[in-house]
Write a structure and sequence with these properties.
The chain has 1509 residues and is an alpha+beta fold. The chain has 26 helices and 78 strands.
């Protein structure tokens, strides 16, 4: 045997789908035939290759399937081929091997290294699986006694009769060469045991597995087409295991028999009563048009009746010819049917606490999650993944065996890794509970998986019973005497955690406590409140219930009503009102709750209520269309009768979930119009809602895949439009309209016989080819075509000639050659006589050449017809064409000569007059220029005096970064992998022995100071490396801040003693040593609490104020310069005139296909489309407190003009162009008026290019411009307002107006920093300033300015300026360049306030200094008072400060990965090992310390050696 094998490694980019949950996928060059999972890898088989992937698909090993050559045969005969297709793929975890078997002449198996599939361990020509490609095969590992075998099932070959063992249906194969008979042998000690089947044609294996000591095999048998399970008990040998088997027939389900099993899954850990084994299967009736063709049923398969040995009707031990089919089987019926769907293909079952969670794959490309409670009651299904097309999900799915948080599934040629839940998306307990996901629960302050919630924290999840509508429900009960009312509140929560659970309830009304003292004590999960019925007034009683569960506080506002007052006709609406008020509904009457009251959900009780109103019951005949895309459909038509009183149409999915309602219009009694909202693939029920709340009538609507546009034929058109274009793609019947990006109107389409076509709109004023993007409109979605479409100028017909041929006339029309490829069907030609009598010219052919095309047509049977001209029509383009003229005669030439002479004389006279006028025009332009400059100066003065400082201070919640991300950005400002590795993930492993040894070593102060000094003495040890070492030491010693502080003090003392610091005023000014960076990190750690509690809010308000002020005026989208700024370098002095606008923004609402209430958004008419989108998102977040759910790059906005919506784009065919530079479109460009309506939609891009924004283009700043014109000569008359001369100095007043607008925010921030709240300085500042004072005394420094400079260099310069200039270190935000420019000016003013130098500023100084010149003197006085106040405060004792540091260490323990920092630190130790040893010798370090250093090196060296081995 020879084979060819390749192994290829490459990185794979992960693609995310629009359904959001961060799925990872990988596409292969062939369809997936099978896949399997081990604890380290995913193995995927296609027709030609085997792949090994790591769990997140970022590393791929590829192995080509071998070409098998048999002994004594170089190649198979030419007429006989044996393709090798893998049909058994088994990771044998215990042996660390991967077993692969497949089809070829008589079978072939190969064993590969589990961790490296390029390594082959063993190969053999042997039949284990079926030989014919396409035949059913099964294989899985089972344990029999102390041995592991392959339970292998195959069908006999219909082609290769010569192969042995073809009659053996099931047998046990060896997995090791040391087992009896060798590897792959199926013999036992004395016999060859196997299982046979009586009927093998159309036999199908479905699934098999081992549960404890029992082995199960499921199959579809052809005899009466039924589903069979056979069960083997694992004995001490192959023979004893196979000889004694039991069988059962699985019956499914209800009135419709489903006799075929498609996929199944054992429910691991099902346990249950008496150790029952639960199993779930997908059964089909084979009727693909049935909306419930497939069902998911749960069975108890742990007992299948009496033991059957040789007389099973379908299976037998060894040969079936010798055994008579006299046996019978037990019928197994399901415990429950939990889901029905048209096309389920696969299922994976997972047990989580008391819940069963099923992951269901479908034939139309969906992954559905279904949770089922312990009573087998299913919850609402959720779609985790939805493919655009109808790719069928592979019958097998796997759960990630390591994290158990991802599902692996295959769709055609793609593998997907889908998260089972996205708990972290839910930001509150209520949101986490409302997700109704068994995997998600609330832990302290976040929604997480249960194993991510560390003890002793309580994990609060949904209750174990069937799902509830509300987290808190209540009932009111009146005592028999009528004097007392009992209010009972129940929380539908489940709490997992250690320790006793705190559960309290407090009831309040506007007067205070509501409850009597006789109220019973709360007992989780419910509590009761007794109060007098006199306290319940006729208008109702508002009650607030405050509930505490563990550490979580809940508050519910209840409106209690006298149940007897809820009266009226017994409608479902009245029933709902009654039960929502906590009352009881029975016999169509609302009454007080009794102890035996119905506890069913409201919708179940009220669905049965009848209406007391006299409405004719509506009947639905049909809905058009009844099949549509999952995006939904606008303007659907319902036909029926008695539709007059219908108010809404209700659409509800599986098990009455996902209920959506849509308003209706155009009632006629027999029809109405409504929107069908978006939904998940599959069939949903539709009914008509009456005013009394009842929903009657029944129809079905089926959601299908999304349309796709792959091409257009032809791909060109002429400028006048109306060319017939055919759209290529899939599911085009769902398309409603077509949109061209240059045209505001949508275009109606025609669909017939599988073909979609439309007529192109015109494209005005083009004289060269222009590209237009074509998109499909489906409901509110815009889906772009993947191919480009080009507009050319209209065809140019030049002349024609007409020749008589008998009774006919042959006309030849000349046309300039173009790229339109016009066909004869697209041209209409008419001959025109003087009396406007037209005769059609029948098209014959079009002859093409390089420069001129000839269009030939004939006018039939017109012997006496003469034409004067032709009228040619091509779409919307019409041309009147005259015949070709003869050459001009000599007489015409003689007439033209005098005319030419007269023209020349006229030109000379005109030129003379033009020069004379030019001088006058220049004088006029100079006067106009002077007037413009005066107006600009005057307008600047007016703006300063009249501008309102209306910046809002209410900015909602402040998005603080958590501590570890704040600290890591301070420690490692450049980011990178070191920063990432130092942030500790949940569940990270403990430090290994080498890291622990190094940790102990650096906690020796002699060693650590020697280590630092040794590194700093190396000439090639640069500043960047010094900062890295300082930050790594900070992370490594973060858990012991007192020791870190002690080391820092020692290093600072040593720094002060260095000869290079002979000028003490320069010390600590720059970060040129390890200890200076260490000081920065130390300040950040110790002042984080003060920053978060005191300084954070004024800093964030300042940032928001600057952002709002900049948005008041123009901001150039390309250079990002702004009219309102503090920094002259970022001043947009070239800005043109602008006007503020207020836009009414409408958001497309997914539930009913319509739009939301308008949101008012402030904008400028000079804003680009991208800037308008940003302002819309900011206004949305400001008003509602949370961001809009569509990111900016997926937003599409349209402007309502004359009742239609015009798409707004950054660049389109109408954009202005200067030279080769394109101007970005603005609201002014689109002529959007003040108060206009803007509609926000989501858009879907074709996956051709990853670039989805113009700013992603590397040449963005050179290809586009906005408010600043490119340096290109142009005609001033075309755009005079853009060519007005602008002087930068005129606009410097904008700097001052911006300063005035934000001045209060700046002063508030400064005074918060150098103020002392409650006359108490943060401990770290007081302690360190006292330390510096003590060092000054010890060095006998009498100059107080030196101490002032030391303190300034330590605190404001080293910490506060860093925070002021980089707010993104503190908040979850992005810092834009113009914001950075403003913050730099403020930071400079801040530092000038601490300066002792007095400098007189003049007109030549930069504006950044001049802007705050008058304020600095006041600030300096406040700074001196601050320093004095700190010095005068009582000193903080060493023990008090150590206690503070201990608390800070404890507060942030386990935030950082100490091991990662220590490993990075060791790299420097290894690099300078000899220098460190020498420094230890110089410092007289003890021998034990040097031995400890050598021991650390040995540990790391051995670790490296082990990793190589």
């Amino acid at each position: 045997m020879t084979y060819e094998m390749k192994a290829v490694f490459w990185g794979v980019l992960l693609a995310c789908v629009d359904w959001g949950w961060g799925q990872e996928n990988l596409t292969f060059d062939g369809d997936v035939r099978d896949f399997a999972i081990s604890d380290r890898s995913v193995y995927v088989v296609t027709d030609d290759r085997l792949y090994q992937l790591n769990h997140d698909f970022t590393k791929v090993i590829k192995r080509d399937t071998p070409n098998v050559v048999y002994p004594n045969q170089e190649a198979p005969p030419s007429n006989e081929t044996y393709p090798f297709k893998v049909n058994i793929l088994l990771p044998f975890i215990k042996n660390k091997t991967l077993i692969t078997c497949g089809t070829t002449k008589c079978g072939y198996c190969e064993i590969l290294d589990l961790n490296e599939i390029s390594k082959s361990v063993h190969s053999e020509n042997i039949e284990v699986g079926s030989l014919d490609p396409g035949d059913s095969t099964i294989g899985f590992i089972v344990d029999v006694g102390t041995n592991s075998y392959i339970m292998a099932g195959r069908l006999p070959s219909r082609v290769r009769k010569a192969c042995v063992n073809s009659d053996q249906l099931l047998d046990l194969r060896n997995t090791l060469d040391g087992q009896h008979g060798g590897i792959f042998s199926h013999s036992d000690e004395s016999t060859t045991p196997y299982i046979d089947a009586r009927q093998k044609e159309n036999f199908q294996f479905v699934d098999g597995f081992q549960s404890n000591s029992h082995i199960y095999v499921f199959s579809n048998v052809p005899q009466e087409r039924q589903v069979r399970v056979i069960l083997f008990k694992s004995e001490n040998s192959k023979t004893n295991t196979l000889r004694h088997f039991q069988g059962a027939t699985l019956k499914c389900c209800g009135n419709t028999e489903r006799r075929e099993l498609l996929s199944s899954s054992v429910i691991q850990g099902s346990g249950g009563l008496h150790g029952q084994v639960l199993w779930a299967g997908v059964f089909t009736a084979g009727n693909t048009s049935d909306p419930i063709n497939t069902v998911l049923a749960i069975y108890n398969i742990s007992s299948t009746g009496p033991q059957l040995k040789y007389n099973d009707p379908d299976f037998c031990y060894k040969g079936c010819a010798e055994a008579l089919p006299t046996g019978t089987t037990q019928d197994l019926h399901p415990e429950a049917v939990v889901f029905r769907y048209s096309s389920m293909t696969s299922v994976l079952a997972v047990r989580h606490n008391s819940w069963l969670v099923f992951f269901i794959g479908t034939g139309d490309g969906q992954l559905i999650k279904l949770a089922v409670d312990k009573a087998y009651k299913p919850a609402c299904p959720r779609v985790l993944y939805n493919s655009d097309d109808d790719r069928r999900v592979f019958p097998k799915m796997h759960l990630d065996p390591v994290d158990r948080k991802h599902v692996y599934m295959a769709l055609r040629n793609q593998m997907m890794r889908v998260p089972v839940a996205q708990c972290s998306e839910h930001k509150s307990l209520k949101d986490c509970w409302s997700a109704q996901d068994p995997f998600c629960g609330w832990c302290e302050s976040r929604c997480s998986f249960q194993d991510d919630c560390l003890q002793p924290s309580a994990w609060i999840s949904i209750s174990e019973d069937s799902q509830q509508q509300n987290m808190v429900s209540y009932q009111v009960e009146k005592s028999s005497s009528g004097e007392k009312i009992t209010l009972t509140v129940k929380v539908h929560l489940n709490v997992n955690g250690t320790g006793s659970l705190t559960f309290t309830c407090n009831f309040f009304n506007k007067r205070g406590d509501l409850c009597d003292r006789t109220s019973p004590a709360p007992a989780f999960p419910q509590c009761s409140c007794l109060f007098s019925s006199d306290q319940l007034p006729a208008e109702g009683l508002n009650v607030t219930v405050k509930i505490r569960v563990g550490k979580q506080n809940l508050a519910e506002k209840l409106m209690l009503t006298n149940c007897s007052d809820i009266t009226g006709p017994p409608t479902s609406a009245l029933c709902s009102q009654c039960m929502t008020a906590g009352c009881s509904w029975s016999n169509d009457v609302c009454s007080w709750t009794t102890r035996s009251a119905n506890s069913d959900p409201i919708q179940d009780v009220c669905r049965l209520s009848q209406s007391g109103l006299n409405y004719s019951e509506p009947v639905i005949f049909s809905i058009e269309p009844s099949v549509l895309s999952f995006h939904g459909r606008n303007h659907a038509l319902m036909n029926g009768e008695n539709l007059d009183h219908v108010t809404k149409v209700r659409i509800q999915g599986h098990m009455n979930c996902s209920l959506k309602e849509s308003p209706v219009w155009n009632h006629t009694g027999s029809s109405l119009t409504f929107h069908i909202p978006s939904g998940d693939k599959g069939s949903v029920s539709v009914c008509a809602v009456l005013p009394d709340g009842r929903c009657l009538g029944k129809a079905t609507v089926t959601y299908g895949s999304s349309p796709s546009c792959t091409g257009l034929t032809p791909s060109t058109t002429w400028a006048s439009g109306k060319r017939k274009i055919k759209v290529h793609g899939s599911h085009l019947e769902f398309v409603e309209e077509v949109v061209h990006d240059h045209a505001p109107q949508t275009i109606q389409t025609k669909y017939s016989s599988g073909t979609l076509w439309y007529h192109t709109p015109p494209f005005e004023h083009i004289n060269q080819p222009v590209t237009s993007t074509v998109s499909l409109r489906v409901a509110n979605q815009t889906l772009a075509c993947s191919s480009q479409f080009t507009y050319h100028p209209d065809p140019e017909f030049t002349s024609y000639t007409a020749i008589k041929t008998g009774n006919d006339m042959r006309v030849t029309i000349e046309k300039r050659a173009d790229k339109l490829n016009i066909t004869t069907e697209e041209i209409l030609v008419f001959g025109v006589q003087e009396e406007n009598h037209d005769v059609e010219c029948v098209m014959d052919t079009i002859e093409t050449s390089n420069e001129t095309d000839s269009v030939i047509c004939e006018i039939k049977n017109t012997p006496n017809f003469n034409i004067n001209s032709l009228r040619i029509r091509v779409g919307n383009f019409t041309k009147i064409l005259l015949p070709k003229q003869a050459a001009p005669s000599l007489l015409i030439i003689l007439v033209l000569i005098p005319i030419v002479i007269v023209v020349i004389v006229g030109v000379v006279l005109y030129s003379y007059n033009k020069q004379r006028k030019m001088a006058a025009q220049m004088n006029k332009q100079l006067d106009q220029l002077e007037c413009d400059i005066r107006n600009d100066i005057r307008q600047g003065f007016v703006d300063m005096q009249t501008e309102k400082c209306d910046l809002i201070e209410n900015v909602g919640a402040i998005p603080f970064l958590d501590y570890k991300h704040f600290a890591s950005r301070i420690f490692f400002p450049d980011g990178g992998p070191v920063m990432t590795s130092c942030i500790k993930d949940i569940g990270q492993v403990q430090p290994d022995e080498s890291c622990q040894a190094l940790s102990r070593l650096i906690r020796d102060q002699v060693f650590l100071t020697s280590f630092v000094h040794a590194l700093e003495e190396q000439k090639n040890f640069n500043v960047k490396e010094k900062c890295a070492v300082a930050s790594l030491l900070t992370v490594s010693l973060h858990g012991d801040l007192p020791y870190l502080t002690q080391v820092m003090e020692e290093l600072l003392r040593a720094l002060m003693e260095q000869p290079s610091n002979s000028q003490p005023k320069l010390m600590l000014r720059r970060t040129e040593s390890i200890v200076e960076k260490l000081l920065t990190n130390w300040m950040s750690i110790c002042l984080y609490g003060f920053l978060r509690e005191s300084v954070g809010q004024p800093l964030f308000l300042l940032v928001c104020a600057l952002t709002q002020q900049m948005s008041k005026g123009p901001v150039d989208s390309v250079t990002e310069k702004a009219l309102y700024t503090l920094n002259e370098d970022w001043l947009l002095w070239q800005a043109q005139d602008f006007s503020p606008m207020r836009l009414q923004v409408l958001f497309a609402v997914g539930t009913d296909g319509e739009v939301s209430e308008p949101l008012e958004v402030s904008a400028l008419d000079c804003d680009t489309v991208e800037q308008v989108k940003e302002k819309i998102l900011l206004a949305f977040k400001t008003k509602f407190g949370f961001p809009y759910n569509i990111p900016l790059r997926q937003m599409h906005i349209e402007y309502e003009k004359n009742g239609r919506f015009v798409p707004l784009k950054e660049v389109d065919a109408s954009s202005g162009v200067l030279g080769e530079v394109t101007m970005l479109n603005t609201l002014k460009h689109y002529k959007v008026p003040d108060g206009a309506s803007i509609k926000v939609l989501s858009k879907t891009h074709p996956s051709l290019s990853p670039q989805s924004s113009l700013k992603d283009d590397q040449n963005y700043s050179t290809k586009y411009f906005h408010l600043i014109d490119p340096d290109i000569d142009q005609d001033q008359k075309k755009n005079p307002e853009r060519k007005k001369l602008k002087l930068k100095e005129v606009y410097l007043t904008k700097l001052l107006s911006t300063k005035v607008a934000v001045h209060s925010f700046v002063e508030n921030l400064f005074r918060t920093i150098w103020g002392t709240p409650n006359l108490k300085t943060p401990p770290a500042i007081k302690y360190f300033f006292d330390f510096l004072d003590a060092q000054g005394e010890s060095k006998r420094i009498s100059d107080q300015d030196v101490l002032h400079i030391w303190k300034t260099n330590s605190l404001p310069l080293r910490f506060w300026v860093n925070i002021l200039k980089n707010p993104q270190f503190v908040f979850d935000m992005e810092k834009t360049p113009p914001l950075d420019g403003c913050l730099s000016v403020i930071a400079q003013a801040f530092m000038d306030s601490f300066s002792l130098a007095e400098k007189q500023l003049g007109k030549h100084d930069p504006t950044n200094k001049l802007l705050y010149a008058k304020d600095i003197s006041q600030y300096k006085q406040e700074v001196r008072a601050y320093y004095k106040q700190v010095r005068d405060q009582p000193p903080i004792s060493s023990s008090e400060f150590k206690e503070f540091l201990h608390k800070e260490s404890k507060k942030h323990e386990n935030e950082f990965n100490e091991s990662a920092a220590l490993r990075e630190l060791y790299k420097y130790m290894q690099l300078y090992f000899d220098e460190i040893k020498l420094k230890l010798d110089q410092n007289g370090a003890p021998v034990e310390l040097k031995e400890q250093l050598q021991h650390v090196k040995s540990l790391f060296d051995s670790l490296k050696s082990c990793s190589w081995n």
